[in-house]
Specification:
Distance between the termini: 13 Å
CATH topology: Rossmann fold
Strand order of the largest sheet: 3-4-2-5-1-6-7-8
CATH class: Alpha Beta
CATH architecture: 3-Layer(aba) Sandwich
Bound molecules: adenosine-5'-diphosphate, magnesium ion
Order of helices and strands: EHEHHEEHHEHEHHHHEHEHHH
Largest sheet: 8 strands, mixed
Number of strands: 8
Shape: globular
Structural class: alpha/beta
């Protein structure tokens, strides 16, 4: 079975697409068969990063049943061995169009894709589709920049993902909890209290689910002057959400990245000795070390 990695962030424009495309390629260079899936609900652009302007088929074709299998949408990318791409289309996923049954089918097919690693670019934001796509993975990568608003948005994103994880756990067992899925909870303690009211054994089970939720953090666009304190973010998440966030690596802000986007080439190919490419290599190694 393929290992699924999801990449998300609280705020847009922090580098998820750039990081996912480069990681996908780096993992193929380490012998893995990789499928990069663009589930960004706001702005799907993975195909553009690879210079694929007219994909033969997109996720919309699958969602609209023009293709029976998601595997048939996964297309090779010009010249890259062992890499396939499932191009996204922002519109379909953003609208309420994505009914429950369609989402279930998409998730089922994702899990059955024929590859070693599936990277899912979830996009930004805390819409419940984004949370569900983030959570479906085996490993969860989150991205932030040192910008305080980005860090705050990331904290909020992880917290809401943790809440969603607990609620989904109970929704599967209990119709009352199922109804809670639509309720807006602001904190984990509120959720635990609600869960405890419907189910006595609920609280320890929920706490265990929170402990098992183990997202990773990639800090992008780091400059010598950035003052982000990841330890503080980690301890806040531990204290208020009960979740461990592990720092997977930091990527410096470097002009080679913008250049690579303009050239439609991943930076690890365009400029493999640039500081950004070296940091991405290190992150790919750190990631594989967790397998
Ligand atoms: N490490 C970096 N150094 C310099 N520019 C970067 C870096 N990471 C991302 N960028 C710039 O930010 C832009 C947005 O990145 P993108 O991956 O599309 O963000 P997201 O997918 O999170 O919305 C890129 O087009 C690139 O120009
Ligand atoms: Mg993106």
């Amino acid at each position: 079975m393929a290992e699924i990695l999801s990449i998300a962030s609280g705020k847009g424009g922090v580098g998820k697409s750039v990081i996912s495309s480069n990681l996908a390629l780096l993992l193929t260079k380490r012998g893995k068969r990789v499928i990069l899936t663009d589930l960004d609900t706001g702005g799907a652009n993975q195909h553009i990063l690879f210079g694929v302007f007219h994909p033969t088929a997109t996720l919309t074709d699958f969602l609209n049943n023009r293709y029976k299998s998601l595997n048939d949408i996964a297309q090779p990318v010009n010249g890259y061995q062992n890499l396939r791409l499932i191009p996204g289309t922002g519109d379909t996923l953003r609208t309420a169009n994505l009914q429950y049954a369609k989402k279930k089918r998409l998730i089922r097919h994702l899990k059955e894709l024929d590859a070693d690693i599936i990277i899912v670019d979830v996009g930004a934001g805390t819409h419940y589709h984004a949370l569900d796509f983030f959570l479906l993975a085996d490993r969860h990568l989150s991205v932030a920049t040192p910008d305080p608003t980005s860090v705050l948005d990331l904290y909020r994103f992880i917290k809401l993902a943790a809440i969603r994880k607990v609620l989904t756990l109970f929704a599967a067992r209990d119709p009352i909890a199922n109804a809670m899925l639509d309720k807006e909870f602001q904190s984990i303690s509120e959720v635990l209290e609600a869960v405890g009211q419907t189910n006595e054994q609920g609280i320890p089970a929920a706490q265990q689910a929170l402990q098992e939720f183990h997202p990773y953090l990639i800090l992008n666009r780091v400059t010598p002057g950035s003052r982000i304190n990841t330890l503080q973010l980690q301890s806040l998440l531990k204290q208020y959400v009960g979740t461990n966030l592990t720092l997977l690596g930091k990527i410096p802000d470097h002009e080679s990245v913008a250049r690579s986007v303009h050239k439609y080439l991943p930076v690890i190919d365009l400029d493999p000795t640039s500081p950004a490419a070296i940091a991405l290599e290190q992150i790919a190694d750190n990631l594989l070390a967790t397998f």
